[in-house]
């Protein structure tokens, strides 16, 4: 909610109307991943990691194609999102 009477302190959390929430970004946090990063803005935290490439067996190997597998999980048990979910994408 924005307080239009006092634009210098327009938001409930003390930020001005043109001020962003504090942000933090760091990388290289996970030792076993080929790459990792963390992005935090206020109470929202996202962590990402890259593992691979994994070897492909026999007939499935095609140097012109790749498959991206994304696995996401919530930190706490939010209704409907408690179990890990996986998305696979192979460009044509």
TrEMBL record:
One GO BP: rRNA processing
Cellular component aspect of the GO annotation: exosome (RNase complex); nucleus
InterPro entries the UniProt entry points to: ExoRNase_PH_dom1, PNPase/RNase_PH_dom_sf, Ribosomal_Su5_D2-typ_SF, RNase_PH
Swiss-Prot/TrEMBL keywords: Exosome, Nucleus, rRNA processing
A Pfam family it matches: RNase_PH
Localization, UniProt: Nucleus
Record-annotated Exoribonuclease phosphorolytic domain positions: 19-74
PANTHER family tied to this protein: EXOSOME COMPLEX COMPONENT (PTHR11953), EXOSOME COMPLEX COMPONENT RRP46 (PTHR11953:SF1)
UniProt record similarity statement: Belongs to the RNase PH family.
Entry protein name: Exoribonuclease phosphorolytic domain-containing protein
Taxon lineage: Eukaryota, Viridiplantae, Streptophyta, Embryophyta, Marchantiophyta
């Amino acid at each position: 909610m924005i307080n239009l009477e006092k634009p210098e302190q327009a938001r409930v959390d003390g930020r001005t109307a043109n001020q962003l929430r504090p942000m933090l970004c760091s990388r290289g946090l996970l030792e076993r991943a080929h790459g990792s990063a963390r992005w935090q803005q206020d109470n929202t935290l996202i962590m990402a990691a890259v593992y691979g490439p994994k070897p492909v067996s026999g007939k499935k190997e095609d140097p012109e194609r790749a498959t991206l597998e994304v696995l996401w999980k919530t930190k706490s048990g939010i209704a409907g999102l408690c179990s890990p979910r996986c998305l696979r994408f192979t460009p044509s």
